[in-house]
Write a structure and sequence with these properties.
It comes from Methanosarcina mazei WWM610. The protein contains six helices and no strands. It is mostly helical. The chain has one domain. The chain is globular. The chain starts with 12 loop residues before the first helix and ends with a helix. Bound molecules: iron/sulfur cluster (2 copies).
Length: 108
Amino acid sequence: MDKRGNSKVAYTLENVKKCMCPKCPVQADSKCAMDKLDSFMKGLETAREGDVPEPQNVPGVYCSTGKTTCQDLNPNQQCICYTCAVWKEYNLGEGTPSMYFCQNGKAT
Ligand code: SF4
Ligand code: SF4
């Protein structure tokens, strides 16, 4: 379910799984993001049907939940949202911001 109320992109496990952020070079050298990814992946193994992790523990779907809480990302690297099924499905390229949601906040 969308816990943020007014998000354009639904915060669902399906979208979390489609998100390309875990493979993004902007986050690749972020210890903060990789630690979240690690615990998120471990959590998935034990998750029950319908469980959705808390947004602050997911290093992605920033288009839905807004800016990252991690301070050590590298926005000089290339955002890969344009490769993501969620980005295409919601036509996020036409919105503002259209990419770098981890830095610019959620899609509107
Ligand atoms: S559009 Fe970007 S932030 Fe949103 S789910 Fe896809 S990769 Fe993640
Ligand atoms: S929003 Fe874009 S720049 Fe930020 S982590 Fe996801 S793919 Fe990378």
